[in-house]
Amino acid sequence: MILNRVPPRRIALASVALLTVILAAGLAMSGLRPAAAQEQRECPVRVTLLQVNDVYQFAPVDGGARGGLARVLTLRKQIMSESPHTLFFLAGDTLSPSIESNTYKGKQMIEAWNAGGLDYATFGNHEFDFGPDVLRERMGESHFKWLAANVIDKKTGKLFADTPEFVVREFDGVKIGIFGILLQETLQTSRPGPDVEILDPCATAARVIPKIHAAGAQVIIALTHLSMGEDKRLARCSGVDLIIGGHEHTLLESMSGHAPIFKMTSDARELGRIDLNISKSTGKLESIDWQVIPVTDKIKDDAAFAPLNEKYGPLLKSLEQTVGRTEVELNIKSADVRTQETNMGDFIADAFRQAAGADVALVNGGSIRADTIIEPGILTKRDVLSILPYNNRVVKMQLTGAVIRAAFEHGVASIGVEAQPGRFPQVSGLRFEYDARRKPGARITSITINGKPLDDKRTYTLATTSYVALDAGDGYDMFRNAPLVTGPEQGLSETDILLKAIASAAAIGPQTDGRIKRVGTAKDQSSCN
Asked: Which of 191, 252, 333, 375 has the fewest CB within 10 Å, making it most exposed?
């Protein structure tokens, strides 16, 4: 369920039966005891959890209107003044990708989280973008704890970088247990290396939760970086009391088993606040109150971030160089570039195809970042680098039509299963149609190139990034052994291609043209969570 900005709400945990009643307005549920009983019982212990996820830059975003960890720290201190039992969580993804991380490999984010008073973080898939050794370095610089109970170092058989399997925190005699979980597809979407293994979330929970109970905790929180479908499965199989999640970049709330699931969007555009009300006598969770707090330019920066702004300010200022203009809104929302044709997806794919001189081009939606709408007007170097921050090389391959068909089947296979699949293809030089109601692997109903049906036996050239072509990024294994016409040594970087395409016109104005057509809606999906 997608949230609007909401006032505080409460879930009463009187019984599992009551927890399954989800009202249309959200997760507001009734199940409170009679008033007389309420007055007689003791006051519960309140533990406040603050939540953000997928935060790639500590500075404000959206032209300065939203986000900014200096503002989040101001809010955190205000909340702690009236709720001293407060913990601050990051549900994964912060070391990459961003313009700053291309230079500092996430070091600037660790400094920001240290200044912001973060307590716990779980790994996101992008924590491994620079490889496992860089992640270990960043962990060594962290003043907070990383939690990932399902990430294993194959060499030692222990948890990666000796992260704790779980932690237990005690407040006024009540104990809560916390463990972290990372999505398994990180093995295909990032660069964890051959010595990292990521275990099944449910199998991991079955191993860890009895240990948490044995340590005296009755309230159990899973800090996750999973898709919503995976979070729901974890809730059902594990019996956790709460899931604090990330990954989708969409403001979400849901419920599965007896566990509420909360996710913010990205880049600290909002701060989630969750109040756990725990019985002091029994240690059991009685109710949950929660709200979504917008992080806006009306909130003052905390002074603790002044040294970071001074240290990294020159880099940020150098990126304000004008590189072009746009006459139209440019749609770079993650929820769109990973699920449908967008005008900026078309523009990027066209630029790749033209630069490489290929018949067609494929751009995995997960490589298009920024997660925003750029308004008409000036385009800066920062805008361009935010859109394509990885700076991969663009290569040209020779492929049969059959391989291209297999690639597009793969690209749409997870629609309806994942909320925002990074494999979703933005394209140029072809048009395709798929039926979302069909089983994955048999969804493509039409592919045409230059108005002619794709010939499975004919050879075509395709432009894409080295990440997709050579690393089989986002699971594009069918490209791995394809002959290269232009390799990464000769190919231009994706950033340079986009910069040149923007600068070549007085102003750009890309429009969608129906090159991607979907048959079947979300209601038609046969998959279930």
From this structure: 375
Residue 234 tokens, joined: 């974890």
185 and 128 in a common domain: yes
Torsion of CA 36, 40, 43, 44, to 10 degrees: -80
Strand 259-263 to 242-245 pairing: parallel
DSSP single-letter state for residue 493: B
* Residue 375 per-residue DSSP state: P
Q: Residue 8, SS3? A: coil
The CATH number of the domain holding residue 177 is 3.60.21.10
What pLDDT shows up at residue 319? 84
Q: Kindly state the DSSP code that residue 392 receives in the 8-state scheme.
A: P
Domain span holding position 83: 42-310
Dihedral sign computed on CA atoms, order 217, 275, 109, 189: positive
Is 407 in the same domain as 431?
Answer: yes
- Quick: pLDDT tens for 161-203: 999 999 999 999 999 999 999 999 999 889 999 999 999 999 9
Shared domain check, 181 and 123:
yes
Contact 113/144 with Cβ under 8 angstroms?
A: yes
Q: Which candidate, 473, 476, 449, places its Cα nearest to that of 461?
A: 449
Domain count, the chain: 2
Q: Are 507 and 328 in contact (CB under 8 A)?
A: no
Residues 323 and 272 placed together within one structural domain of the fold: no
Which of 248, 277, 310 is at the close of a domain? 310
CA separation for the pair 454, 401 (Å, rounded): 6
CA distance 109 to 305: 12
d(CA 447, CA 400): 13
Element (H, E) at 431: strand 430-435
Mean pLDDT of the chain: 90
Q: How far apart are CA 410 and CA 394, in angstroms?
A: 20
- Same-domain status, 197 and 260: yes
Going by pLDDT thresholds of 50, 70 and 90, the confidence category of residue 521 is: low
Q: Which of 274, 291, 310 is the last residue of a domain?
A: 310
Respond yes or no on whether the N-terminal peptide bond of residue 97 is cis (omega within 30° of 0): yes
Backbone phi and psi for residue 122, each to the nearest 5 degrees, phi listed first: -110, 160
CB 225 within 8 A of CB 198: no
**What was the pLDDT predicted at 364?**
96
Q: Provide the token pair at 225.
A: 């970086």
Closest listed residue to residue 517, CA positions, set 407, 419, 432: 432
The candidate with the shortest Cα–Cα distance to 187, out of 176, 199, 175, is: 199
Calpha distance 111→46 (Å, rounded): 29
Q: Are the C-beta atoms of residues 345 and 337 closer than 8 Å to each other?
A: yes
The per-residue pLDDT for 9 is 66
Residue 351 CA neighbour count, 13 Å, CB half: 26
Rg value, the chain, Cα: 24
